[in-house]
Amino acid sequence: MESNYFIDFLRDLLSVDEAVRTEASDRVQDFVNLLSGTQARVVGDLIAMLAPHEESRVALEALLHALTDLDGCGKLDGVDLSPLSGIPESVIHVEHREYMEEFAPRIARASNGTAE
Asked: Is residue 84 over pLDDT 70?
Protein backbone atom coordinates (compact mmCIF):
# COMPACT_ATOMS: atom_id res chain seq x y z
CA MET A 1 0.00 0.00 0.00
CA GLU A 2 1.25 3.47 -0.79
CA SER A 3 2.98 5.06 2.22
CA ASN A 4 0.95 8.29 2.29
CA TYR A 5 -2.36 6.42 2.26
CA PHE A 6 -1.09 4.00 4.90
CA ILE A 7 -0.02 6.82 7.24
CA ASP A 8 -3.38 8.57 6.78
CA PHE A 9 -5.11 5.29 7.61
CA LEU A 10 -3.04 4.88 10.81
CA ARG A 11 -3.94 8.44 11.81
CA ASP A 12 -7.62 7.61 11.32
CA LEU A 13 -7.28 4.57 13.59
CA LEU A 14 -5.93 6.93 16.26
CA SER A 15 -8.56 9.63 15.74
CA VAL A 16 -10.38 11.11 18.72
CA ASP A 17 -13.58 10.85 16.66
CA GLU A 18 -15.34 7.52 17.20
CA ALA A 19 -16.90 7.57 13.72
CA VAL A 20 -13.50 8.07 12.07
CA ARG A 21 -11.96 5.23 14.12
CA THR A 22 -14.84 2.92 13.27
CA GLU A 23 -14.72 3.76 9.56
CA ALA A 24 -10.95 3.23 9.48
CA SER A 25 -11.33 -0.19 11.07
CA ASP A 26 -14.07 -1.07 8.58
CA ARG A 27 -11.77 -0.11 5.67
CA VAL A 28 -9.30 -2.89 6.53
CA GLN A 29 -11.42 -5.40 4.61
CA ASP A 30 -11.21 -3.20 1.50
CA PHE A 31 -7.42 -3.14 1.26
CA VAL A 32 -6.15 -6.05 3.35
CA ASN A 33 -4.68 -7.70 0.26
CA LEU A 34 -2.72 -4.54 -0.57
CA LEU A 35 -0.87 -4.53 2.75
CA SER A 36 2.73 -5.68 2.80
CA GLY A 37 3.67 -8.10 5.56
CA THR A 38 5.20 -5.27 7.57
CA GLN A 39 2.18 -3.02 7.11
CA ALA A 40 -0.16 -5.84 8.16
CA ARG A 41 1.88 -6.44 11.34
CA VAL A 42 1.87 -2.71 12.14
CA VAL A 43 -1.91 -2.52 11.64
CA GLY A 44 -2.54 -5.70 13.62
CA ASP A 45 -0.27 -4.67 16.48
CA LEU A 46 -1.80 -1.18 16.59
CA ILE A 47 -5.35 -2.53 16.60
CA ALA A 48 -4.49 -5.02 19.34
CA MET A 49 -3.00 -2.20 21.43
CA LEU A 50 -5.96 0.14 20.81
CA ALA A 51 -8.73 -2.38 21.54
CA PRO A 52 -8.34 -2.46 25.35
CA HIS A 53 -8.68 1.33 25.44
CA GLU A 54 -11.65 1.64 23.08
CA GLU A 55 -14.70 2.98 24.90
CA SER A 56 -17.17 2.67 22.02
CA ARG A 57 -18.92 -0.69 21.58
CA VAL A 58 -19.24 -0.09 17.84
CA ALA A 59 -15.61 0.94 17.37
CA LEU A 60 -14.41 -2.03 19.45
CA GLU A 61 -16.41 -4.41 17.28
CA ALA A 62 -14.92 -2.80 14.16
CA LEU A 63 -11.39 -3.19 15.57
CA LEU A 64 -11.94 -6.86 16.36
CA HIS A 65 -13.51 -7.45 12.97
CA ALA A 66 -10.50 -5.82 11.29
CA LEU A 67 -8.28 -8.37 13.03
CA THR A 68 -10.42 -11.17 11.59
CA ASP A 69 -10.05 -9.60 8.14
CA LEU A 70 -6.27 -9.72 8.55
CA ASP A 71 -6.50 -13.30 9.78
CA GLY A 72 -8.73 -14.35 6.90
CA CYS A 73 -6.03 -13.26 4.46
CA GLY A 74 -3.23 -14.89 6.41
CA LYS A 75 -1.82 -11.54 7.49
CA LEU A 76 -2.14 -11.90 11.25
CA ASP A 77 1.08 -13.91 11.56
CA GLY A 78 3.59 -12.13 13.75
CA VAL A 79 0.97 -9.84 15.29
CA ASP A 80 1.06 -9.68 19.10
CA LEU A 81 -2.51 -10.25 20.25
CA SER A 82 -1.60 -10.31 23.96
CA PRO A 83 -2.91 -6.74 24.51
CA LEU A 84 -6.42 -8.07 23.79
CA SER A 85 -6.28 -9.78 27.18
CA GLY A 86 -6.48 -6.28 28.65
CA ILE A 87 -9.98 -5.66 27.32
CA PRO A 88 -12.09 -5.39 30.47
CA GLU A 89 -14.67 -8.17 30.75
CA SER A 90 -17.28 -5.49 31.49
CA VAL A 91 -16.96 -4.06 27.95
CA ILE A 92 -17.06 -7.40 26.14
CA HIS A 93 -20.63 -7.62 24.97
CA VAL A 94 -22.38 -10.28 22.93
CA GLU A 95 -21.18 -8.77 19.63
CA HIS A 96 -17.56 -9.06 20.81
CA ARG A 97 -17.63 -12.56 22.33
CA GLU A 98 -17.22 -14.54 19.09
CA TYR A 99 -14.13 -12.51 18.18
CA MET A 100 -12.64 -12.93 21.63
CA GLU A 101 -13.31 -16.67 21.60
CA GLU A 102 -11.70 -16.94 18.16
CA PHE A 103 -8.59 -15.11 19.33
CA ALA A 104 -8.39 -16.70 22.80
CA PRO A 105 -5.81 -19.38 21.90
CA ARG A 106 -3.57 -16.81 20.19
CA ILE A 107 -3.94 -14.38 23.06
CA ALA A 108 -2.97 -17.12 25.52
CA ARG A 109 0.05 -18.16 23.45
CA ALA A 110 1.18 -14.55 23.01
CA SER A 111 0.70 -13.82 26.71
CA ASN A 112 2.75 -16.90 27.59
CA GLY A 113 5.45 -15.99 25.09
CA THR A 114 5.01 -19.13 23.00
CA ALA A 115 5.01 -19.20 19.21
CA GLU A 116 1.97 -19.74 17.01
From this structure: yes
Alpha-carbon distances, residue 36 vs 9, 20, 43, 92, 96 (angstroms): 14, 23, 10, 31, 27
Q: Are 47 and 25 in contact (CB under 8 A)?
A: yes
Q: Note the pTM of the prediction, 2 decimals.
A: 0.89
Integer Cα distance of 76 and 39 in angstroms: 11
Q: Is the pLDDT of residue 56 over 60?
A: yes
Q: Pseudo-torsion of CA 110, 112, 115, 116, nearest 10°?
A: -50
DSSP per residue, the chain: --HHHHHHHHHHHT-S-HHHHHHHHHHHHHHGGG--HHHHHHHHHHHHHHGGG---HHHHHHHHHHHHHHHHTT--TT---GGGGGS-GGG--HHHHHHHHHHHHHHHHHHHT---
Q: Please write the tens of the pLDDT for every residue from 104-113.
A: 888 888 767 6
> Which residues, in sequence order, are CB contacts of 31 under 8 Å at separation 6+?
1
